[in-house]
Specification:
Elements (H helix, E strand, L loop, with lengths): L2 E2 L6 H8 L3 H7 L1 E5 L1 H9 L6 E4 L7 H12 L3 E4 L2 H8 L7 E6 L15 E6 L4 H14 L3 E5 L8 H7 L7 E5 L1 H9 L4 E5 L16 E5 L8 H6 L2 E3 L12 H17 L2
Parallel strand pairs: 1-4, 3-4, 6-7, 6-10, 7-8, 9-10, 9-11
Antiparallel strand pairs: 2-5, 3-5
Helix pairs in contact: 1-5, 6-7, 6-10
Length: 267
């Protein structure tokens, strides 16, 4: 049976509230996901929370009741509490009525199997959690394998990233590495590295993409370093018809990925 929490000072309340902080997430090995849709996506991919917190209203939905029961059966901690305490946990005035604390997955390159997909994303120094979440969501939509974050990126397990991914954090593989770790790993097997860049006239729509294709997206404000561009097998540019010289990083990733998918489909 779920245990009831009515105190703001409860240790579990403090733990879940702390997961909004990167250091606490790292120390605990947990991250927070909010809302029935995301928790259902996680369950469908075989992920149940270590801790699930909910209000009476949140538990009323049949799907939510299933996830709560399965979490308990798996040895997780199920907590029923008030909307006010859920708001304190989430840090939002209008909190979702269902929250889950999940174990962070292994994000080493060694756990990736590049043969599992013909498209992968690589993000270099992405600083916007929303962009990371959106790229994960795009990866799910385009049938990509996942996202490799290079160098100093924003935390992929932040609440903002998880929310922007709309559950795709659970459907996409995620890895984190330095460039000096990534490049030898990439060259140890098959893989075409395609960089999106302003420093080329090669139209993205005419490029000869090859699988598995690793789409490299640079930092939102600075783009890719010159040495990273030089390491690419191919640089492509998305032509701009207006005054803007480039797209948002996540949009550029999506446009390029769907073109890669189209080129594979049309062969």
């Amino acid at each position: 049976m779920p245990r009831e929490i009515t105190s703001f000072s409860n240790a579990t309340v403090k733990l879940i509230r702390a997961l909004r902080d990167k250091k606490a997430r790292r120390d605990e090995g947990l991250f927070l996901a909010e809302g029935l849709r995301i928790l259902a996506e996680a369950r469908d991919e075989g992920h149940l929370p270590r801790i699930i917190a909910f209000s009476e209203k949140g538990a009323a939905h049949p799907l939510a009741a299933e996830i709560i029961a399965e979490t308990e059966e798996a040895g997780g901690d199920a907590i029923i509490t008030t909307p006010d305490i859920l708001s304190k946990m989430s840090g939002k005035d209008n909190a979702q009525m269902l929250l889950g604390a999940y174990e962070q997955p292994d994000t080493s390159l060694s756990q990736l199997d590049r043969t599992k997909a013909d498209i992968w994303f690589v993000g270099e120094k992405l600083r916007d959690p929303g962009n990371i979440g959106t790229i994960l969501r795009t990866g799910d939509a385009v049938g990509a394998g996942g996202l490799i974050l290079i160098d100093d990126c924003a935390d992929p397990f932040s609440v903002e990233t998880v929310r922007a991914s709309m559950g795709a954090l659970f459907t996409q593989r995620l890895a984190q590495a330095s460039w000096d770790e990534f490049l030898p790993w990439l060259r140890s097997g098959d893989g075409q590295l395609v960089g999106t860049s302003l420093n080329t006239d090669f139209d993205y729509a005419a490029a000869p993409y090859a699988a598995p294709c690793f789409i490299l997206i640079g930092n939102e404000s600075q783009g890719l370093p010159t040495s990273y561009e030089q390491a690419c097998d191919l640089l492509v540019k998305i032509p701009m018809a207006g005054k803007a010289d480039s797209l948002n990083a996540a949009i550029a990733a999506a446009v390029t990925a769907f073109q890669v998918r189209a080129s594979f489909r049309n062969r």
